[in-house]
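Run ABC transporter permease through structure prediction, thanks.
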Amino acid sequence: MQDTTDMHKLEKAARENSALSSLRLVFNEFMADKMAMISLIVVLLVIIYTMVASLFINVSHMMSTDIMNYFAKPFTANFWLGADAGGRSIAKQMVIGSRNSILIAIGLTFLSSVVGITYGMISGYFGGMVDLAMQRVYDFMMIIPAFMIIIVVVNVIPTYNGLTLTLILSMFYWMGTSRLIRAQTLSESHKDYVLASKASGTSTFKIIFRQIMPNLSSLIVVDTTLSFAENIGVETGLSYLGFGLPNGTPSLGTLIANANDADNITIYWWTWLPATIEIILLCLAISYIGAALRRATNSTQRRSKK
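Sure, done. The structure for ABC transporter permease is below.
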């Protein structure tokens, strides 16, 4: 009994040391890669600023029309990023729009990753008929014109909000993660440590989520990070086309949609350019972060195999 207790303590200490070592590797990787560190700071600042600043903005008052400030120019009193055709502050719309786009992207990334990772690992681990049946479901979901269905559903639903939109999108954006995870799980499931665990009677749940999943951490981290950048683009694209958030709800996509007007492109550039720059910077920054995390995670896995 005492030996078992001591063994559990040693295993716990080993896991804690491994976690600390992984954190050090991540920290060192970001310190070595200046672009990754700058990107991390940019993303954190954007998220923190938008979340905090949005608490002090009255959305209904912000979206009310003020014809006296029709297309107010940037760097003027109360409009440091200018105003749109309705005299509404572009800066305030960017804060609320960024918050909405980021929250939807976070929710969509979380839901699609959970579903995709779980589905892919189960399919890859069991293989055989289970994998065949699950892949037929995957193939069916892939041939569905997801973007068109989302547009139809959004038009059919009488009232919806950001949460509803996130749930609708998550139904169609888990397949890429699933296929990626399945392929790697198929490879891992035939390795010696998995076969030994099966022979020793370890439960399927523990083998999948406690043994195989940690070895996929590099893949999961990179895929999740890049999916976040992609999902910001998905929401922005839908809102740009007019099928994203409901009318009157600010989004980065609705701000960029101001560029559809020729006058806005040539004369009133401030109505769409700041949001466009923000989207580009966010996506590039998140990509740099994903690359740095991949290198750090790969280093961790190489150390664990030594």
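The chain has one domain: 33-305.
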